[in-house]
Amino acid sequence: MPSEFDLIYRHFAHLGAGPAVELSVGDDCAILKLEPGERLVTSVDTLVEGVHFLPDTFPEIIGYRAVATAVSDLAAMGARPLGMTIALTLPDADEFWVHSFSQGLAEAVSEYSLPLVGGDTTRGPLTVSVQVMGAVHADQALLRSGAQVGDAVYVSGTLGDAAGGLAFLQDEWRPSPDAAAYLVERHERPTARLALGQQLLAVATATIDISDGLLADAGHIAAASGVAIELESAALPISPALAEAGERATTWALTGGDDYELCFTLPVGVPAPEGCVRIGTVVVGEGVRVDADIDTGAGYQHF
Ligand code: ADP
Ligand code: MG
């Protein structure tokens, strides 16, 4: 049976190099470098087996997804990635599991240039917590709170794909095989929009990543900015694969979680970044309104 330290040094310690890393795995803390005038931005996200991923999910997928979902918060701030730490709770020291998990981590570390600089390894029910750290210049972070009446509302990518993929995995819906493969990939390997976030730094008035569903997350921008948001259901970007679901596609696009696209507001006249579409407008009032007759269960809530 490998010890905790065998696992760490065999499977995690090699993922710790990066331009901002002064000291990585092996001491009491890691040391990361900031440029003059920068601020540290940090966030932590936890995935629990049976709550955030289905039991028996392939460990490589858990590893990749745990990082991508956490990195998405850095994207939503416009942050430059510095490094992350991972607290891993395992039922047993299953080295095949840890090896596969670390391969998923390695893919994400390289895709997002976010080295793994430390962590904690404990025994218990399978749980993965990823703490991400990034940098922004003082007073330049993208917040939820800057949306102005008259701004246009945008999203990146397509919406509802992860919810469609999950519905397929849970046997609630049977799309065509090609559509199923695409949607499952979107559920299992979400893309954090890190580059887009940095592109938005100079222009967006408010930004959030869509983890709980568009209605819920646009609602956070509205609340933080003291405005209302009007969404046009016909403008929602829906992939050809999800469109196979007909009307349910719109419901998933509005309420399905786990897409990790960015929703942001731009002053009128600012051109939309590539791959982003306008879905609504910031108006006077509060909350989110949409011209679709759907059950607006307002996204996923844990309690
Ligand atoms: P400490 O007792 O100081 O908390 P640990 O014994 O928990 O240190 O961990 C030893 C070293 O290994 C530390 O540098 C820690 O950051 C790192 N580490 C522990 N678990 C992980 C992990 N899952 N991934 C990456 N680094 C880890
Ligand atoms: Mg420790």
Bound molecules: adenosine-5'-diphosphate, magnesium ion
Q: Kindly report the average pLDDT value.
A: 95
Q: Specify the biggest β-sheet.
A: 6 strands, mixed
Strand content: 25-35%
Mind explaining what this structure looks like?
The chain is of the alpha+beta class and 303 residues long. Helix content is 32%, strand content 25%. The protein has helices at 4-11, 59-77, 95-112, 161-169, 177-188, 194-200, 214-225, 240-243, 247-255; strands at 21-23, 31-32, 38-48, 80-90, 116-123, 127-137, 152-156, 206-209, 228-231, 262-266, 276-283, 287-290. The strands form 3 sheets. A 6-stranded mixed sheet has the order 8-10-7-11-9-12, sandwiched between helices. A 4-stranded mixed sheet has the order 3-6-4-5, covered by helices on one side. Helix 2 (59-77) packs parallel to helix 3, helix 2 (59-77) runs parallel beside helix 6 and helix 4 packs across helix 5. It is globular. The two termini are 38 Å apart. The relative contact order is 0.17. The structure holds adenosine-5'-diphosphate and magnesium ion. Adenosine-5'-diphosphate binds at residues 8, 12, 25-28, 86, 88, 116, 118-121. Adenosine-5'-diphosphate (ADP) binds next to strand 4 and strand 5.
Question: How would you concisely characterize the structure shown here?
Answer:
By secondary structure, the chain is α+β, with helices and mostly antiparallel strands. It has nine helices and twelve strands. A hairpin with a 7-residue loop joins β1 and β2.
Task: Spell out the key features of this protein.
303 residues, alpha+beta, six-stranded mixed β-sheet, four-stranded mixed β-sheet, 12 strands, binds adenosine-5'-diphosphate, binds magnesium ion
